[in-house]
Design a protein that fits this description.
179 residues, 7-stranded mixed sheet, 5 helices, 22% strand, alpha+beta, binds coenzyme A, Aminopeptidase, single chain, globular
Amino acid sequence: MAQGKTSRRGKAADEAQAADGRARDAARGLRVRAVRQADLPQVIALDATVTGLHKSDYWQRVYRRYGVGGQGLRHFLVAVHGARVVGFVIGEVRDWEFGSPPCGWVFAIDVDPHARLAGIGTALLGAMRERFRQVGVTMLRTMLSRDNQLLLSFFRSQGLTAGHLIPLQIEIETGAAGA
Ligand SMILES: CC(C)(COP(=O)(O)OP(=O)(O)OC[C@H]1O[C@@H](n2cnc3c(N)ncnc32)[C@H](O)[C@@H]1OP(=O)(O)O)[C@@H](O)C(=O)NCCC(=O)NCCS
């Protein structure tokens, strides 16, 4: 679990950094924009390369909830080189959940394995951060598996550090109800 340092940064500095990032990305032909229905087959294929699972129904649901029904608080963004999708990020502003003031959660981020280490993950997270900032959110959070060293290195490089929330869980036995 980690949280961003957005609250410590000035608004002007954030805006300047976002503008610099967009200019750099435009110069190398990279664009981050809201997902479109036509992008979904590439998103599904990209997810399958990372997870090994081809989850069409799941991605249609994610698209309906975060792609077209976002209402400014839910975001499903893709990074594209021309028509080629090279990464995506999904996030949402949540109000007062887990007892916390409104904050922006990043649920998923993936970059095409052939396009990594070229700043695409940074561009995706930066675009999400900018959208959160535009609605007055000053904290970005995410959760990841403690075994995922790659994601941990990435988020650490983006300034995220361990937060004050801890995940708790319990295994629910199936078939136990009424027994
Ligand atoms: C993590 C991920 C999004 C990074 O994307 P990316 O486009 O390669 O990231 P960037 O090029 O913007 O890298 C930014 C920084 O992250 C860190 N980083 C990225 N890849 C790294 C690696 N393989 N090893 C160590 N640090 C790494 C570095 O500090 C890097 O900065 P540097 O290039 O100046 O050293 C990408 O590797 C990915 O999609 N991994 C799979 C994610 C996953 O498991 N998703 C499923 C659960 S949501």
